[in-house]
Amino acid sequence: MARILHIEDLRVHFPINIGTVRAVEGANLTIEEGEVMGLVGESGCGKSTLGLSILRLLRPPGRIVEGKILYHGEDIVRMGAKEILALRGGRIAMIFQDPLTSLNPLFSIKEHFIETLRTHEKRIETKEALARAERMLSSLGISPERLHEYPHQMSGGMRQRIMIGLGLILNPDLLIADEPTTALDVIVEAQFLDLLDDLRKRFNLSIMLITHNLGNVAQLADRISVMYCGTIVEVGPAQTIFDEPLHPYTQGLLASIPNIKLDEPELKLMRGSLPDLVSPPSGCVFHPRCPRAMDVCSEEWPKTAAVNGHQVNCWLYR
Ligand SMILES: Nc1ncnc2c1ncn2[C@@H]1O[C@H](COP(=O)(O)OP(=O)(O)O)[C@@H](O)[C@H]1O
Ligand code: SF4
Ligand SMILES: [Mg+2]
After folding, report:
1. What pLDDT shows up at residue 100?
2. Does residue 23's CB lie within 6 angstroms of at least one atom of ligand 1?
3. Peptide bond preceding 61 in cis form (omega within 30 of 0)
């Protein structure tokens, strides 16, 4: 399998009046061709910032201060404006939580597709653009007649499908989906995740599925990266992240999913909340909340250890 994305020691900061928000602080993440990588962690841990960095869509004052984002071996951090534009939509697509804010209420769905195609293929004829839009809709299980509708005429689930269609119309090989189902109800959410699973096979897509809900990625992800305070604390195959989580934070996340039984009930209580990213804790950033913390934990950041097919940053596995 080829490696499509390789993020190395990425640091992304937001300088604000009271200091610097260290939203991403030394994150490492890889995505292999055709795989679904689930990126999970509590709200505010830096998942969206990491996703937006890949497309260089950070809002000021956000800035990549260090690290590499290799896409097929090319470093996105060092790309010029022209290359970045070609990347967005063309080779890497991104969808967000609320499709209504990404669709223009004044444009019909048809116009959205034509516009999207023309930003990358300037001379495409309307007829050809429409034919491609219709083919895309039918592969998403949507009737072509809906091309004439406007965003407000559609349900949330339908709008999210349209966003996927607009994302895939230019044949990207990587889709970044940031909490795509948060605004959907449970049944529509399940249908949407099924659709993603189907699309990745048919379009040979790699997907980065960002979610705060570990239960969500269960059915779809091949591997899971667990993020805490701007860094990745554990990576492993989805199945064993669920069955044998190693990092106490991953164990705590799992324990917070209803109906999951743990051998060690003390983990059920993940104390406190995410620390302030302006002045994160010393050593292992999880130590103030960790039921297993030892003296060394507040002093030094644990290096990555390879244990049972996982990569984990925790002094329990030195
Ligand atoms: N534009 C911004 N200015 C200042 N701080 C920001 C900005 N965007 C995000 N942050 C901060 O960066 C941290 C990570 O946020 P985010 O990446 O949105 O996390 P997540 O997606 O995991 O919820 C948070 O502390 C958030 O407040
Ligand atoms: S390094 Fe220490 S504080 Fe951090 S997760 Fe492991 S045991 Fe807990
Ligand atoms: Mg987010």
Report:
1. 67
2. yes
3. yes
